[in-house]
Amino acid sequence: MKNVTDSFLSLSYWPSAGSFGFNTDILATNPINLSVVFGVLIFFGKGVLSDLLDNRKQRILNTIRNSEELCGGAVEQLEKARARLRKVEMEADQFRVNGYSEIEREKLNFINSTYKTLEQLENYKNETIHFEQQRTINQVRQRVFQQALQGALGTLNSCLNNELHLRTISANIGMFGAMKEITD
């Protein structure tokens, strides 16, 4: 054992530059001084350290409390938002159903109005055709009458003398005027 101690003591004689070793001299290492310093630090620093730790603990607790309050508020807002979302989804479904119903109703109304419009157009077409037929018939009657009248006048002109001819013309003009008033 003495050899080991001597080897450590011999290390202390070496130059300090670049050397490493253990110093076994208790007074040289100042363990008593170090223990006194540590004791003083612990005795007086205990209160400061305790206060620092208490302050830190209070800050952490306050942060946790605030976080829990914020979390509770966030959960409450989330529930409100979910309730609003459900309400909006129900309203959207209702609008969708009402929209489809409204579209079907408008479609039926459009089909009905188109059908009525087509019926009216068909009636107008039939009335126009009937009117044109009547007008054409009247024109044909007038032409036939005029041709018959001209034929009769031609026959009368060849058979009648001037006096009889003038009376017949006057009578025919009167008849023609009366017929024209009837047709108009």
TrEMBL record:
F-type ATPases have 2 components, F(1) - the catalytic core - and F(0) - the membrane proton channel. F(1) has five subunits: alpha(3), beta(3), gamma(1), delta(1), epsilon(1). F(0) has four main subunits: a(1), b(1), b'(1) and c(10-14). The alpha and beta chains form an alternating ring which encloses part of the gamma chain. F(1) is attached to F(0) by a central stalk formed by the gamma and epsilon chains, while a peripheral stalk is formed by the delta, b and b' chains. Belongs to the ATPase B chain family. It comes from Sideroxylon spinosum. This is ATP synthase subunit b, chloroplastic. One of its GO terms (molecular function) is proton-transporting ATP synthase activity, rotational mechanism. The chain crosses the membrane at residues 32-49. In plastids the F-type ATPase is also known as CF(1)CF(0). The lineage of its organism: Eukaryota, Viridiplantae, Streptophyta, Embryophyta, Tracheophyta. Keywords: ATP synthesis, CF(0), Chloroplast, Coiled coil, Hydrogen ion transport, Ion transport, Membrane, Plastid, Thylakoid, Transmembrane, Transmembrane helix, Transport. GO terms for cellular component: chloroplast thylakoid membrane; proton-transporting ATP synthase complex. It is a single-pass membrane protein.
